[in-house]
Amino acid sequence: MKEKLTAAPAAPGRLALALRAATPSIVLVLLILAIWEACVRALEVSAFVVPAPSSILAVLLERQGELMHASLVTGAEILYGFLYSCIVGIVVALLVDRFAWFGRASYPLIVLFQNVPKIALAPLLILWFGYDLLPKVALIVIMAFFPVTLNMLVGLRSADANLVSLLQSIGATPNQVLARVKLPASLPALMAGMKVAITLSVIGAIVGEFVGASAGLGYMIQFASSQMDTALVFAALVQVSVLGVVFYYIIELLELRFLGWAAH
């Protein structure tokens, strides 16, 4: 019992380790911001061209209410789009792996479709579905499902061939092999695909808002650009970056919580 208690590190210990690991990144960011601030002041660069970090911070604090409301709108688009991307990506991967004919027929088309510039599809989606949530979610799904499909397929096909052969030799059906061997083996690769998908979901949401929206961080960036408010543009970009990082590390935490065994 004593061994079990001492084996698991305490929460404060894990927090200290996380802070220690993040220290180099924090120091680098602070150094870049300090150099940026010094260059803007020394060279007397106009705030219209490149605002100083202190000016961007002031806008972040002054207009945090507007930025937070826009973040909630964009965050909802990212979340819905990401979840539907995962569902579509997983279903397609399972179908390609389970039915060889489906894989031969659809996989080349999926790869071909990925080469279509997604920004060119955004106006069509706005035309078909209007200016609400649906076109942004559809664009995110188009952009983000492919890494989920590709990584899950890699995981499904990396399952232990000896174990698959053993189950087949004792009469296991393809569905039983999938559920007992292939699906568990695919989970680490699936999580890797989900990490890529969440970053693409952020990009998809912003692109969708650029093309047609009345709210959200992408809309705010476009509006601030039209008003030549460069500090607000940077403030919204900071907010987008923070939103993307939060979503990414939520996936990381879920992976550590449920797939910690895969790291060993």
From TrEMBL:
Signal peptide: none annotated. It is found in: Cell membrane. It is a multi-pass membrane protein. GO terms for biological process: transmembrane transport. The chain crosses the membrane at residues 12-36, 42-61, 82-101, 107-130, 137-156, 196-219, 231-251. InterPro entries: MetI-like, MetI-like_sf. Keywords: Cell membrane, Membrane, Transmembrane, Transmembrane helix, Transport. The keyword Membrane applies. One of its GO terms (cellular component) is plasma membrane. It comes from the Bacteria. The keyword Iron-sulfur does not apply. Belongs to the binding-protein-dependent transport system permease family. This is ABC transporter permease. It comes from Bordetella pseudohinzii. The lineage of its organism: Bacteria, Pseudomonadati, Pseudomonadota, Betaproteobacteria, Burkholderiales. The gene is ssuC_1.
